[in-house]
Design goal:
Layout: H1 2-22, H2 36-87, E1 90-98, E2 102-110, E3 112-114, E4 121-122, E5 128-134, E6 139-145, E7 152-157, E8 162-165, E9 172-178, E10 203-211, E11 216-225, H3 228-238
Parallel strand pairs: 1-11
Antiparallel strand pairs: 1-5, 2-4, 2-6, 3-5, 6-7, 7-8, 9-10, 10-11
């Protein structure tokens, strides 16, 4: 009986040990080992993390795209400047604005127009623009507004660091043609050459500004009615 009892207890312990060995230990990373509610929560959290990452990546991509578009014009301007330098060319953009309708044109000594030239009549309150190109000798010529006996000279020669408007050594200039009532400033037979909007006024003034930027430069011109002091000064200088 004692032998049967020991045999039973040994076999019982053996069956418990074999049962323990045959069972699988729960995995710390397995959703199968977690309660059903916990597994669902973990899965939804992972999906949210993936969605948040995708949103952040989309935002970064959008910012990069907008930055590329914003810098596109700057890159194009830089590429054009490098091309002009390599070709040893000069580029001048002329912008004219007038307070009234006036005829105006450009007489070139060196260089040529690129694209469309200025219209014959500059409409009041409307900006007009023309572009001129020159090779190694640069660009030179005169701006001739209606009513001016002599054109207003301008020169742009980056190779020799020579640039001016109106007079040598000046990047800004103000030129006035007085009306006939100021005397001495304009001959009577030339009064009719003034723009119609300037009849009876002290005269016409053109303000000019030349901005150098290596091979790409700009010339701005503003045409307006002259003040009394400008007309008197111009008349005294002409007499």
């Amino acid at each position: 009986a004692a032998a049967v009892s020991r045999s039973s207890s040994v076999s019982g312990r053996s069956s418990e040990c074999s049962s323990s060995r045959s069972g699988k230990a729960p995995s710390l990373w397995s959703f199968d080992a977690l309660p059903r509610s916990t597994a669902a929560t973990a899965a939804s959290s992972g999906a949210l993390r993936r969605a948040g990452s995708a949103a952040r990546l989309g935002s970064v991509g959008a910012l990069a795209l907008s930055g590329g578009i914003a810098s596109g014009s700057s890159l194009a301007a830089l590429a054009q400047r490098e091309r002009l330098q390599a070709d040893r060319n000069v580029r001048l953009v002329l912008t004219i604005e007038s307070d009234f309708d006036v005829a105006c044109w450009v007489s070139l000594d060196s260089g040529e127009v690129e694209g469309e030239d200025l219209p014959i009549i500059i409409s009041g309150g409307v900006k007009c623009e023309a572009t001129y190109m020159g090779e190694a000798e640069g660009i030179s010529g005169s701006l001739v507004p209606e009513g001016f006996r002599d054109g207003i000279p301008f020169v742009l020669r980056p190779a020799s660091s020579d640039a001016f408007v109106g007079q040598p050594g000046r990047l800004r200039s103000t030129v006035t043609v007085p009306g006939s009532s100021r005397g001495g400033g304009i001959a009577p037979d030339e009064v009719s050459l003034l723009p119609a909007a300037a009849v009876g006024s002290p005269g016409v003034t053109v303000e000019l500004r030349l901005t150098e930027d290596g091979v790409c430069s700009q010339l701005f011109a503003h045409i307006r009615l002259a003040t009394e002091s400008e007309a008197r000064r111009a008349a005294s200088q002409a007499s």
